[in-house]
Every structure is written in C-alpha cells, then in structure tokens.
Request: fold
Amino acid sequence: MAMFGKIRRMYYRDGLSLSEIARRTSLSRNTIEKWVREPEGAEPRYRRREVPRKLVPFEAQLLQALETDARLPRRERRTALKLYAELRSEGFTGSYSG
Reply:
C-alpha cells in the first residue's frame, strides 16, 4: 500500500505529528497511530471473510435464461421482475432491489 509508506515517511522523516498527518490524508488519527507503530516492513491487510453469495446456486439457470432471451425480439424478453419471480419459485431467498 502506497499510503502506508507515505504515512510512515511523514511521521519518521518529515517529523509531522499524528494530527497533522490525519489532516493531510483524511484518515483517522487512530489508523495513523496504528500504522506508525507497526514494525518495519509490515503492511496492513484486510481480514475480510469469504461470504458465499446467494445467487451462486442459480447462476447457471440465470445465464441460460439470459442467453435464451438474447435471441428473442425485445418485446418478448423476460423482464428482471419476471426473472426474479422464476428464481423465487426455484427457492431463491434474496430480495429484489431494482
């Protein structure tokens, strides 16, 4: 991360305070303090979990429906609401937000 190195440079080389770095970078003072206190060469990492998406079990069915509709005239194609209704009848538990 470029920002990590930039913050450490501002603090150690330029001698800026944590508050001044926070003002210049628009980051939280707590984040800056944590990054400055990290050992040399350490980079922050995201610890985001892999969450299975709700559409994964229905992807093949949805792609097939879209490919079929692509060959039809525009007026005969299924709308997003109709596709949603079909997925609901197949057991899809997600919501329609469109």
DSSP finds five helices and no strands in the chain. The mean pLDDT is 89.
